[in-house]
Amino acid sequence: MATKQAITGGETIKTITTHYIDGAFVESHGREVMDVIKPTTGTVIARVTLGDEEDTKRAIAAAKRAFATYGRSTKEERAKILRRLHQAASARVDDLTAAMVEEYGGVVQFARPIVESGISAFLASEKALQDLPLARSWGKTTVTLEPVGVAGLITAWNANALFICLKLASAVAAGCTVVIKPSELSSLQTRVMVEALHEADLPKGLLNVVTGLGNIVGAELTRNPDVAKISFTGSVGVGENIMRDAAATMKRVTLELGGKSPTILLDDATLDQAIPSALVMAFLNSGQACAAGTRLLVPKSRLDETKSRIREAMRAITVGDPADPKTAIGPMVSQKQYERVQSYIRKGIEEGAEVLAGGEGHPEGLDAGYFVKPTVFVNVRNDMTIAQEEIFGPVLCVIAYDSEEDAVRIANDSRYGLHAAVLGTDIQRARRVASQIRAGRVVINNMTDDPQAPWGGFKYSGVGREYGQYGMEAFLETRAILE
Ligand code: NAD
Question: Which end of the chain, C or N, has fewer beta carbons within 10 A?
Protein backbone atom coordinates (compact mmCIF):
# COMPACT_ATOMS: atom_id res chain seq x y z
CA MET A 1 0.00 0.00 0.00
CA ALA A 2 1.30 3.45 -0.88
CA THR A 3 0.27 5.53 2.13
CA LYS A 4 -0.75 4.23 5.55
CA GLN A 5 -2.25 6.10 8.44
CA ALA A 6 -1.85 5.37 12.15
CA ILE A 7 -3.64 7.14 14.99
CA THR A 8 -1.35 7.96 17.90
CA GLY A 9 -2.50 10.05 20.85
CA GLY A 10 -5.29 11.66 18.84
CA GLU A 11 -2.93 12.66 15.99
CA THR A 12 -3.07 11.01 12.59
CA ILE A 13 0.44 10.14 11.46
CA LYS A 14 0.81 9.16 7.83
CA THR A 15 3.53 6.76 6.82
CA ILE A 16 5.04 6.48 3.38
CA THR A 17 7.25 3.47 2.77
CA THR A 18 7.28 3.15 -1.01
CA HIS A 19 8.81 4.70 -4.11
CA TYR A 20 7.34 4.78 -7.62
CA ILE A 21 9.42 2.55 -9.89
CA ASP A 22 8.52 1.00 -13.26
CA GLY A 23 4.87 1.99 -13.03
CA ALA A 24 4.22 0.71 -9.49
CA PHE A 25 4.56 1.71 -5.85
CA VAL A 26 7.31 -0.52 -4.44
CA GLU A 27 8.62 -0.89 -0.89
CA SER A 28 11.78 1.04 -0.13
CA HIS A 29 15.08 -0.82 0.01
CA GLY A 30 16.49 2.05 2.09
CA ARG A 31 15.45 1.72 5.75
CA GLU A 32 16.13 5.18 7.18
CA VAL A 33 12.96 6.91 8.37
CA MET A 34 12.49 10.68 8.45
CA ASP A 35 9.84 12.63 10.38
CA VAL A 36 7.74 15.16 8.51
CA ILE A 37 7.18 18.18 10.76
CA LYS A 38 4.24 20.51 10.33
CA PRO A 39 5.68 24.05 10.28
CA THR A 40 2.66 25.75 11.85
CA THR A 41 2.95 23.63 15.01
CA GLY A 42 6.35 21.92 14.98
CA THR A 43 4.65 18.53 15.43
CA VAL A 44 5.29 15.28 13.56
CA ILE A 45 2.59 14.58 10.97
CA ALA A 46 4.18 11.82 8.92
CA ARG A 47 7.06 9.38 8.71
CA VAL A 48 8.75 8.69 5.42
CA THR A 49 11.08 5.84 4.60
CA LEU A 50 13.98 7.25 2.60
CA GLY A 51 15.37 5.61 -0.50
CA ASP A 52 19.00 4.58 -0.88
CA GLU A 53 21.43 3.99 -3.75
CA GLU A 54 19.82 0.62 -4.53
CA ASP A 55 16.34 2.18 -4.91
CA THR A 56 17.86 4.84 -7.14
CA LYS A 57 19.68 2.28 -9.31
CA ARG A 58 16.43 0.31 -9.74
CA ALA A 59 14.62 3.46 -10.81
CA ILE A 60 17.40 4.37 -13.27
CA ALA A 61 17.34 0.85 -14.72
CA ALA A 62 13.55 1.10 -15.24
CA ALA A 63 13.93 4.49 -16.93
CA LYS A 64 16.70 3.11 -19.13
CA ARG A 65 14.54 0.17 -20.26
CA ALA A 66 11.65 2.52 -21.00
CA PHE A 67 13.88 4.90 -22.95
CA ALA A 68 14.62 2.16 -25.49
CA THR A 69 11.02 2.53 -26.70
CA TYR A 70 9.91 5.97 -25.52
CA GLY A 71 13.03 7.61 -26.90
CA ARG A 72 11.73 6.68 -30.37
CA SER A 73 8.18 7.95 -29.80
CA THR A 74 6.47 10.25 -32.28
CA LYS A 75 5.32 13.79 -31.60
CA GLU A 76 1.70 12.61 -31.49
CA GLU A 77 2.44 9.88 -28.94
CA ARG A 78 4.21 12.37 -26.69
CA ALA A 79 1.44 14.93 -27.11
CA LYS A 80 -1.16 12.37 -26.03
CA ILE A 81 0.85 11.54 -22.92
CA LEU A 82 1.21 15.23 -22.05
CA ARG A 83 -2.56 15.69 -22.35
CA ARG A 84 -3.17 12.67 -20.12
CA LEU A 85 -0.69 13.99 -17.54
CA HIS A 86 -2.49 17.33 -17.59
CA GLN A 87 -5.85 15.69 -17.07
CA ALA A 88 -4.60 13.40 -14.29
CA ALA A 89 -2.91 16.19 -12.33
CA SER A 90 -5.84 18.60 -12.83
CA ALA A 91 -8.12 16.16 -11.03
CA ARG A 92 -6.11 16.62 -7.81
CA VAL A 93 -5.59 20.40 -7.60
CA ASP A 94 -7.36 20.65 -4.22
CA ASP A 95 -5.37 17.78 -2.71
CA LEU A 96 -2.07 19.11 -4.08
CA THR A 97 -2.80 22.56 -2.66
CA ALA A 98 -3.79 21.13 0.71
CA ALA A 99 -0.57 19.08 0.87
CA MET A 100 1.55 22.18 0.18
CA VAL A 101 -0.26 24.12 2.87
CA GLU A 102 0.13 21.34 5.42
CA GLU A 103 3.64 20.17 4.69
CA TYR A 104 5.59 23.39 4.33
CA GLY A 105 3.10 26.03 5.34
CA GLY A 106 2.75 27.52 1.86
CA VAL A 107 -0.07 30.08 2.00
CA VAL A 108 -3.09 28.96 0.04
CA GLN A 109 -3.12 32.20 -1.97
CA PHE A 110 0.31 31.20 -3.33
CA ALA A 111 0.00 27.40 -3.25
CA ARG A 112 -3.07 27.05 -5.45
CA PRO A 113 -1.84 29.23 -8.34
CA ILE A 114 1.55 27.52 -8.14
CA VAL A 115 -0.06 24.09 -8.45
CA GLU A 116 -2.22 25.29 -11.34
CA SER A 117 0.75 26.92 -13.02
CA GLY A 118 2.76 23.68 -12.70
CA ILE A 119 -0.03 21.61 -14.20
CA SER A 120 -0.42 24.05 -17.10
CA ALA A 121 3.18 23.18 -18.05
CA PHE A 122 1.97 19.90 -19.57
CA LEU A 123 -0.12 21.76 -22.16
CA ALA A 124 2.53 24.45 -22.63
CA SER A 125 5.06 21.72 -23.39
CA GLU A 126 2.64 20.09 -25.80
CA LYS A 127 2.44 23.41 -27.66
CA ALA A 128 6.23 23.76 -27.60
CA LEU A 129 6.50 20.24 -29.01
CA GLN A 130 4.03 20.97 -31.80
CA ASP A 131 5.80 24.24 -32.68
CA LEU A 132 9.38 22.94 -32.65
CA PRO A 133 10.48 21.18 -35.85
CA LEU A 134 12.30 18.02 -34.72
CA ALA A 135 13.87 17.51 -38.16
CA ARG A 136 15.33 19.83 -40.80
CA SER A 137 17.06 18.93 -43.98
CA TRP A 138 18.88 20.60 -46.84
CA GLY A 139 20.85 19.08 -49.68
CA LYS A 140 22.01 15.70 -48.44
CA THR A 141 22.02 16.74 -44.79
CA THR A 142 19.29 15.88 -42.26
CA VAL A 143 19.39 17.34 -38.76
CA THR A 144 17.18 15.84 -36.05
CA LEU A 145 16.61 16.73 -32.41
CA GLU A 146 16.96 13.61 -30.29
CA PRO A 147 16.04 13.03 -26.65
CA VAL A 148 19.15 13.19 -24.50
CA GLY A 149 18.31 9.98 -22.58
CA VAL A 150 17.37 9.22 -18.98
CA ALA A 151 16.98 12.46 -17.03
CA GLY A 152 17.39 12.94 -13.28
CA LEU A 153 15.06 15.66 -12.01
CA ILE A 154 15.96 17.06 -8.58
CA THR A 155 13.57 19.52 -6.94
CA ALA A 156 13.54 22.09 -4.14
CA TRP A 157 10.76 22.09 -1.54
CA ASN A 158 9.42 25.61 -2.07
CA ALA A 159 7.26 24.81 -5.11
CA ASN A 160 7.86 21.08 -5.47
CA ALA A 161 4.60 20.39 -7.36
CA LEU A 162 5.45 23.02 -9.95
CA PHE A 163 9.02 21.80 -10.40
CA ILE A 164 7.92 18.18 -10.85
CA CYS A 165 5.32 19.11 -13.48
CA LEU A 166 7.55 21.59 -15.29
CA LYS A 167 10.61 19.35 -15.55
CA LEU A 168 8.56 16.25 -16.33
CA ALA A 169 6.59 18.08 -19.04
CA SER A 170 9.74 19.25 -20.84
CA ALA A 171 11.40 15.83 -20.53
CA VAL A 172 8.33 13.96 -21.82
CA ALA A 173 7.94 16.42 -24.73
CA ALA A 174 11.57 15.79 -25.65
CA GLY A 175 11.18 11.98 -25.50
CA CYS A 176 13.15 11.40 -22.29
CA THR A 177 12.32 9.07 -19.42
CA VAL A 178 12.90 10.31 -15.90
CA VAL A 179 13.85 9.59 -12.32
CA ILE A 180 12.60 12.30 -9.98
CA LYS A 181 14.25 13.00 -6.64
CA PRO A 182 11.89 15.38 -4.90
CA SER A 183 13.01 17.42 -1.94
CA GLU A 184 12.90 15.33 1.22
CA LEU A 185 10.85 18.19 2.69
CA SER A 186 8.12 17.56 0.08
CA SER A 187 7.36 13.87 0.57
CA LEU A 188 3.64 14.29 1.24
CA GLN A 189 3.12 16.65 -1.69
CA THR A 190 5.09 14.34 -3.94
CA ARG A 191 2.98 11.38 -2.90
CA VAL A 192 -0.24 13.13 -3.92
CA MET A 193 1.36 14.17 -7.20
CA VAL A 194 2.61 10.68 -8.02
CA GLU A 195 -0.76 9.13 -7.19
CA ALA A 196 -2.29 11.66 -9.58
CA LEU A 197 0.22 11.04 -12.38
CA HIS A 198 -0.11 7.27 -11.97
CA GLU A 199 -3.68 7.68 -13.31
CA ALA A 200 -2.27 9.00 -16.60
CA ASP A 201 -1.56 5.40 -17.64
CA LEU A 202 2.03 6.09 -18.65
CA PRO A 203 4.32 3.59 -20.34
CA LYS A 204 6.03 1.65 -17.52
CA GLY A 205 9.34 3.18 -16.49
CA LEU A 206 8.76 6.56 -18.13
CA LEU A 207 8.22 8.14 -14.70
CA ASN A 208 10.09 6.97 -11.59
CA VAL A 209 10.21 8.76 -8.26
CA VAL A 210 12.57 8.01 -5.37
CA THR A 211 12.18 9.99 -2.17
CA GLY A 212 15.41 10.37 -0.25
CA LEU A 213 18.26 12.59 0.80
CA GLY A 214 20.24 14.65 -1.65
CA ASN A 215 23.62 13.26 -0.68
CA ILE A 216 22.34 9.71 -1.28
CA VAL A 217 19.64 9.59 -3.97
CA GLY A 218 20.63 12.90 -5.60
CA ALA A 219 24.31 11.96 -5.58
CA GLU A 220 23.60 8.56 -7.18
CA LEU A 221 21.62 10.24 -9.96
CA THR A 222 24.45 12.70 -10.49
CA ARG A 223 27.20 10.07 -10.79
CA ASN A 224 25.31 7.18 -12.46
CA PRO A 225 26.54 6.72 -16.04
CA ASP A 226 23.06 5.71 -17.23
CA VAL A 227 21.71 9.16 -16.45
CA ALA A 228 22.40 11.59 -19.30
CA LYS A 229 20.99 14.80 -17.88
CA ILE A 230 20.33 16.45 -14.53
CA SER A 231 17.75 19.17 -14.20
CA PHE A 232 18.12 20.66 -10.74
CA THR A 233 16.31 23.34 -8.75
CA GLY A 234 17.89 24.32 -5.44
CA SER A 235 20.70 26.18 -3.76
CA VAL A 236 23.94 27.44 -5.29
CA GLY A 237 26.09 25.20 -3.07
CA VAL A 238 24.37 21.99 -4.16
CA GLY A 239 24.26 23.24 -7.76
CA GLU A 240 28.05 23.64 -7.71
CA ASN A 241 28.45 20.07 -6.42
CA ILE A 242 26.16 18.71 -9.10
CA MET A 243 27.94 20.56 -11.90
CA ARG A 244 31.31 19.30 -10.70
CA ASP A 245 30.25 15.68 -10.06
CA ALA A 246 28.18 15.45 -13.25
CA ALA A 247 31.27 16.32 -15.28
CA ALA A 248 32.74 12.87 -14.56
CA THR A 249 30.07 11.31 -16.79
CA MET A 250 29.73 14.40 -19.04
CA LYS A 251 26.09 14.93 -18.13
CA ARG A 252 24.12 17.85 -19.45
CA VAL A 253 22.99 20.03 -16.56
CA THR A 254 20.29 22.60 -16.05
CA LEU A 255 20.67 24.44 -12.75
CA GLU A 256 17.93 26.70 -11.39
CA LEU A 257 19.51 28.34 -8.36
CA GLY A 258 19.05 31.26 -5.99
CA GLY A 259 18.42 34.96 -6.35
CA LYS A 260 18.60 38.36 -4.68
CA SER A 261 16.27 40.09 -7.04
CA PRO A 262 16.09 43.88 -7.38
CA THR A 263 12.85 45.82 -7.76
CA ILE A 264 13.63 49.22 -9.25
CA LEU A 265 11.09 51.85 -8.33
CA LEU A 266 11.51 54.66 -10.87
CA ASP A 267 10.86 58.23 -9.79
CA ASP A 268 7.70 58.45 -11.92
CA ALA A 269 6.11 55.38 -10.27
CA THR A 270 2.61 55.67 -8.82
CA LEU A 271 3.13 54.56 -5.23
CA ASP A 272 -0.49 53.40 -4.84
CA GLN A 273 0.34 50.63 -7.30
CA ALA A 274 4.09 50.31 -6.91
CA ILE A 275 4.25 49.70 -3.14
CA PRO A 276 1.71 46.83 -2.99
CA SER A 277 3.33 45.34 -6.07
CA ALA A 278 6.84 45.60 -4.55
CA LEU A 279 5.69 44.02 -1.29
CA VAL A 280 3.92 41.14 -3.03
CA MET A 281 7.13 40.40 -4.95
CA ALA A 282 9.27 40.71 -1.80
CA PHE A 283 7.11 38.39 0.31
CA LEU A 284 6.21 35.89 -2.39
CA ASN A 285 5.77 32.44 -0.85
CA SER A 286 6.42 33.97 2.58
CA GLY A 287 9.74 35.21 1.19
CA GLN A 288 10.78 31.64 0.39
CA ALA A 289 10.93 32.19 -3.36
CA CYS A 290 13.95 32.22 -5.63
CA ALA A 291 12.43 35.19 -7.49
CA ALA A 292 11.47 37.20 -4.40
CA GLY A 293 12.20 40.90 -5.00
CA THR A 294 14.18 41.35 -1.80
CA ARG A 295 16.06 44.53 -2.76
CA LEU A 296 13.82 47.52 -3.34
CA LEU A 297 15.76 50.33 -5.03
CA VAL A 298 14.17 53.71 -4.35
CA PRO A 299 15.14 57.16 -5.73
CA LYS A 300 16.44 59.38 -2.93
CA SER A 301 13.91 62.03 -3.94
CA ARG A 302 11.03 59.70 -3.01
CA LEU A 303 12.55 57.84 -0.08
CA ASP A 304 10.59 59.43 2.80
CA GLU A 305 7.31 59.04 1.00
CA THR A 306 8.10 55.41 0.15
CA LYS A 307 9.07 54.61 3.74
CA SER A 308 5.83 55.90 5.16
CA ARG A 309 3.80 54.05 2.49
CA ILE A 310 5.63 50.80 3.29
CA ARG A 311 5.09 51.23 7.04
CA GLU A 312 1.39 51.69 6.41
CA ALA A 313 1.13 48.77 3.98
CA MET A 314 2.97 46.42 6.36
CA ARG A 315 0.20 46.85 8.95
CA ALA A 316 -2.25 45.28 6.51
CA ILE A 317 -0.10 42.18 5.85
CA THR A 318 -1.54 39.15 7.64
CA VAL A 319 0.80 36.53 9.07
CA GLY A 320 -0.67 33.28 10.31
CA ASP A 321 -2.61 30.19 9.27
CA PRO A 322 -1.52 29.38 5.73
CA ALA A 323 -4.85 27.65 5.02
CA ASP A 324 -6.71 30.94 5.51
CA PRO A 325 -7.09 32.62 2.08
CA LYS A 326 -6.53 36.04 3.70
CA THR A 327 -3.08 35.09 5.04
CA ALA A 328 -0.21 36.64 3.10
CA ILE A 329 2.68 35.12 5.06
CA GLY A 330 2.85 31.66 6.61
CA PRO A 331 5.57 29.96 8.64
CA MET A 332 9.08 29.16 7.47
CA VAL A 333 9.46 25.59 6.27
CA SER A 334 11.58 24.36 9.19
CA GLN A 335 13.26 25.29 12.46
CA LYS A 336 16.52 25.60 10.54
CA GLN A 337 14.98 28.09 8.11
CA TYR A 338 13.42 30.01 11.03
CA GLU A 339 16.84 30.35 12.65
CA ARG A 340 18.48 31.32 9.37
CA VAL A 341 16.04 34.20 8.93
CA GLN A 342 16.55 35.31 12.55
CA SER A 343 20.31 35.30 12.11
CA TYR A 344 20.07 37.53 9.01
CA ILE A 345 17.77 39.97 10.83
CA ARG A 346 20.37 40.18 13.63
CA LYS A 347 23.13 40.62 11.05
CA GLY A 348 21.26 43.48 9.38
CA ILE A 349 20.93 45.29 12.69
CA GLU A 350 24.61 44.69 13.52
CA GLU A 351 25.65 46.06 10.12
CA GLY A 352 23.76 49.30 10.79
CA ALA A 353 20.56 48.87 8.79
CA GLU A 354 17.43 50.27 10.42
CA VAL A 355 14.33 48.17 11.05
CA LEU A 356 11.31 49.93 9.56
CA ALA A 357 8.92 47.05 10.27
CA GLY A 358 9.19 43.61 11.89
CA GLY A 359 12.43 42.53 13.54
CA GLU A 360 13.61 39.51 15.51
CA GLY A 361 11.41 36.84 17.10
CA HIS A 362 7.95 35.41 16.55
CA PRO A 363 5.02 37.64 15.60
CA GLU A 364 2.67 38.34 18.50
CA GLY A 365 0.34 35.42 19.24
CA LEU A 366 2.25 33.00 16.97
CA ASP A 367 4.70 31.41 19.38
CA ALA A 368 4.30 27.83 18.13
CA GLY A 369 5.73 26.78 14.77
CA TYR A 370 8.20 28.61 12.60
CA PHE A 371 6.55 32.00 12.07
CA VAL A 372 8.79 35.05 11.64
CA LYS A 373 7.96 38.75 11.50
CA PRO A 374 7.97 40.11 7.95
CA THR A 375 10.79 42.61 8.16
CA VAL A 376 11.72 45.70 6.18
CA PHE A 377 15.15 47.26 6.54
CA VAL A 378 15.93 50.81 5.44
CA ASN A 379 19.30 52.59 5.32
CA VAL A 380 20.67 49.50 3.65
CA ARG A 381 23.86 49.68 1.58
CA ASN A 382 24.09 47.22 -1.27
CA ASP A 383 27.37 45.83 0.08
CA MET A 384 25.76 44.71 3.37
CA THR A 385 25.34 40.97 3.90
CA ILE A 386 21.54 41.28 3.97
CA ALA A 387 21.61 42.90 0.52
CA GLN A 388 24.02 40.39 -1.01
CA GLU A 389 23.03 36.99 0.41
CA GLU A 390 19.83 35.08 -0.25
CA ILE A 391 17.93 34.97 3.06
CA PHE A 392 14.92 32.97 1.80
CA GLY A 393 12.49 34.57 4.21
CA PRO A 394 10.28 37.68 4.33
CA VAL A 395 13.07 40.24 4.69
CA LEU A 396 13.11 43.28 2.39
CA CYS A 397 16.05 45.68 2.02
CA VAL A 398 15.27 49.22 0.89
CA ILE A 399 18.27 50.78 -0.84
CA ALA A 400 18.38 54.42 -1.97
CA TYR A 401 19.80 55.45 -5.37
CA ASP A 402 20.77 58.77 -6.98
CA SER A 403 20.02 58.35 -10.69
CA GLU A 404 18.75 55.83 -13.23
CA GLU A 405 22.35 54.75 -13.97
CA ASP A 406 22.97 54.33 -10.26
CA ALA A 407 19.84 52.15 -9.96
CA VAL A 408 21.01 49.89 -12.79
CA ARG A 409 24.49 49.67 -11.27
CA ILE A 410 23.11 48.65 -7.86
CA ALA A 411 20.64 46.18 -9.40
CA ASN A 412 23.49 44.45 -11.25
CA ASP A 413 25.90 44.57 -8.30
CA SER A 414 25.00 41.06 -7.16
CA ARG A 415 26.35 37.60 -7.79
CA TYR A 416 22.79 36.61 -8.70
CA GLY A 417 20.78 37.36 -11.83
CA LEU A 418 17.52 35.45 -11.76
CA HIS A 419 14.67 37.93 -11.71
CA ALA A 420 14.08 41.68 -11.53
CA ALA A 421 11.24 44.18 -11.68
CA VAL A 422 10.96 47.75 -12.91
CA LEU A 423 8.10 49.92 -11.65
CA GLY A 424 7.26 53.19 -13.38
CA THR A 425 4.68 54.95 -15.52
CA ASP A 426 6.82 55.82 -18.56
CA ILE A 427 6.86 52.45 -20.29
CA GLN A 428 9.65 53.35 -22.75
CA ARG A 429 11.87 54.32 -19.87
CA ALA A 430 10.94 51.19 -17.91
CA ARG A 431 11.86 49.08 -20.95
CA ARG A 432 15.18 50.92 -21.31
CA VAL A 433 16.03 50.17 -17.68
CA ALA A 434 14.83 46.55 -17.97
CA SER A 435 17.11 45.99 -20.98
CA GLN A 436 20.16 46.83 -18.85
CA ILE A 437 19.45 44.33 -16.08
CA ARG A 438 21.66 41.23 -16.04
CA ALA A 439 18.91 38.76 -15.10
CA GLY A 440 17.11 35.93 -16.85
CA ARG A 441 13.70 37.53 -16.42
CA VAL A 442 12.64 41.15 -15.88
CA VAL A 443 9.00 42.09 -15.27
CA ILE A 444 7.60 45.57 -15.78
CA ASN A 445 5.12 46.88 -13.22
CA ASN A 446 3.90 43.56 -11.89
CA MET A 447 4.78 39.91 -11.50
CA THR A 448 3.32 38.23 -14.53
CA ASP A 449 3.82 34.95 -16.31
CA ASP A 450 3.95 33.39 -19.76
CA PRO A 451 4.34 29.60 -19.96
CA GLN A 452 6.42 29.89 -23.15
CA ALA A 453 8.80 32.54 -21.76
CA PRO A 454 12.16 31.20 -20.59
CA TRP A 455 13.04 31.03 -16.90
CA GLY A 456 16.55 30.79 -15.55
CA GLY A 457 19.50 32.71 -14.28
CA PHE A 458 22.52 34.75 -15.27
CA LYS A 459 25.63 34.38 -13.12
CA TYR A 460 25.23 32.33 -9.90
CA SER A 461 21.48 32.01 -10.45
CA GLY A 462 22.11 29.06 -12.68
CA VAL A 463 22.75 27.46 -16.02
CA GLY A 464 20.16 26.90 -18.74
CA ARG A 465 16.49 27.73 -19.08
CA GLU A 466 13.13 26.11 -18.37
CA TYR A 467 9.58 26.55 -19.75
CA GLY A 468 8.15 26.03 -23.21
CA GLN A 469 10.49 25.47 -26.11
CA TYR A 470 13.54 26.66 -24.15
CA GLY A 471 12.85 24.06 -21.47
CA MET A 472 12.31 21.30 -23.99
CA GLU A 473 15.54 22.09 -25.86
CA ALA A 474 17.44 21.44 -22.64
CA PHE A 475 16.46 17.75 -22.97
CA LEU A 476 17.48 17.42 -26.63
CA GLU A 477 20.64 16.55 -28.53
CA THR A 478 21.22 17.54 -32.15
CA ARG A 479 22.19 14.88 -34.69
CA ALA A 480 23.17 15.49 -38.32
CA ILE A 481 23.09 12.73 -40.91
CA LEU A 482 25.05 13.48 -44.07
CA GLU A 483 24.76 11.24 -47.11
P1 NAD B 1 18.83 22.54 -1.65
O2 NAD B 1 19.92 22.84 -2.60
O3 NAD B 1 19.15 22.34 -0.23
O4 NAD B 1 18.06 21.21 -2.11
C5 NAD B 1 17.51 21.09 -3.41
C6 NAD B 1 17.46 19.62 -3.78
O7 NAD B 1 18.79 19.13 -3.92
C8 NAD B 1 16.79 18.73 -2.75
O9 NAD B 1 16.00 17.77 -3.38
C10 NAD B 1 17.98 18.11 -2.05
O11 NAD B 1 17.70 16.87 -1.45
C12 NAD B 1 18.93 17.92 -3.21
N13 NAD B 1 20.34 17.74 -2.86
C14 NAD B 1 20.97 18.12 -1.71
N15 NAD B 1 22.27 17.71 -1.75
C16 NAD B 1 22.45 17.09 -2.95
C17 NAD B 1 23.57 16.47 -3.57
N18 NAD B 1 24.76 16.42 -2.99
N19 NAD B 1 23.40 15.95 -4.80
C20 NAD B 1 22.21 16.01 -5.43
N21 NAD B 1 21.10 16.57 -4.88
C22 NAD B 1 21.23 17.10 -3.65
O23 NAD B 1 17.76 23.71 -1.84
P24 NAD B 1 16.37 23.91 -1.10
O25 NAD B 1 16.60 24.38 0.29
O26 NAD B 1 15.51 22.72 -1.30
O27 NAD B 1 15.74 25.10 -1.97
C28 NAD B 1 16.03 26.44 -1.76
C29 NAD B 1 16.96 26.96 -2.82
O30 NAD B 1 16.44 26.68 -4.11
C31 NAD B 1 17.11 28.46 -2.77
O32 NAD B 1 18.44 28.83 -2.98
C33 NAD B 1 16.24 28.94 -3.93
O34 NAD B 1 16.58 30.20 -4.43
C35 NAD B 1 16.46 27.85 -4.91
N36 NAD B 1 15.36 27.83 -5.90
C37 NAD B 1 15.62 28.21 -7.19
C38 NAD B 1 14.58 28.25 -8.12
C39 NAD B 1 14.79 28.69 -9.53
O40 NAD B 1 13.92 28.46 -10.36
N41 NAD B 1 15.91 29.30 -9.87
C42 NAD B 1 13.30 27.88 -7.72
C43 NAD B 1 13.10 27.50 -6.40
C44 NAD B 1 14.13 27.46 -5.51
Answer: C
Category of 64 on φ-ψ map: left (φ > 0), alpha (ψ -120 to 50) or beta: alpha
> With the C-alpha atoms ordered 130, 476, 464, 97, is the resulting torsion angle positive or negative?
positive
- Give the distance (Å) from ligand 1 centre to CA of residue 456: 14
Pocket test for ligand 1, best of 183, 230, 256, 288 (most atoms within 8 A of CB): 183
CA distances to 127, 404, 421, 474 from 408, in Å: 36, 6, 11, 30
Confidence band for 9, pLDDT divided at 50, 70 and 90: very low
**Ligand 1 within 6 A of 246 CB?**
no
Model confidence, pTM: 0.97
Name the residue among 285, 121, 97 with its Cα closest to residue 189.
97
Which value, in Å, is the radius of gyration of the alpha carbons in the chain?
23
List of E strands, 202-326: 207-209, 229-233, 252-256, 262-265, 295-299
165 catalytic residue (yes or no): no
Pairing of strands 24-27, 18-21: antiparallel
- Over residues 394-451, the pLDDT tens digits come to 999 999 999 999 999 999 999 999 999 999 999 999 999 999 999 999 999 988 889 9
Q: How far is CA 123 from CA 67, 356, 452, 475, in A?
A: 22, 44, 10, 17
| Substitution candidate for ligand 1 out of 235, 339, 389, 391 with most atoms within 8 A of CB | 235
Q: Is residue 257 in contact with ligand 1, taking CB distance under 6 Å?
A: yes
- For ligand 1, say whether the CB of 258 is within 6 Å of any of its atoms: yes
Active site residue 290: yes
Q: pLDDT tens for residues 192-216? A: 999 999 999 999 999 999 999 999 9
Among 227, 257, 285, 388, residue to substitute to test ligand 1 (most atoms within 8 Å of Cβ): 257
Distance, CA of 153 to CA of 176 (rounded, Å): 11
Q: Is the CB of 219 under 6 A from ligand 1?
A: yes
Among the listed residues 126, 290, 390, 397, the single catalytic one is 290
Q: Catalytic one among 256, 390, 397, 466?
A: 256
Q: Is 234 in the pocket of ligand 1 (CB under 6 A)?
A: yes
Which residues in 301-331 are b (16+ Cβ under 10 Å) and which e?
ebbeebbebbeebbeebebbbbbeeebbbbb
- Alpha-carbon distance of 196 to 207, in angstroms, equals 12
Q: Is 294 in the pocket of ligand 1 (CB under 6 A)?
A: no
**Residues contacting 419, CB < 8 A, separation 6+:** 259, 261, 290, 291, 293, 439, 440, 441, 442, 443
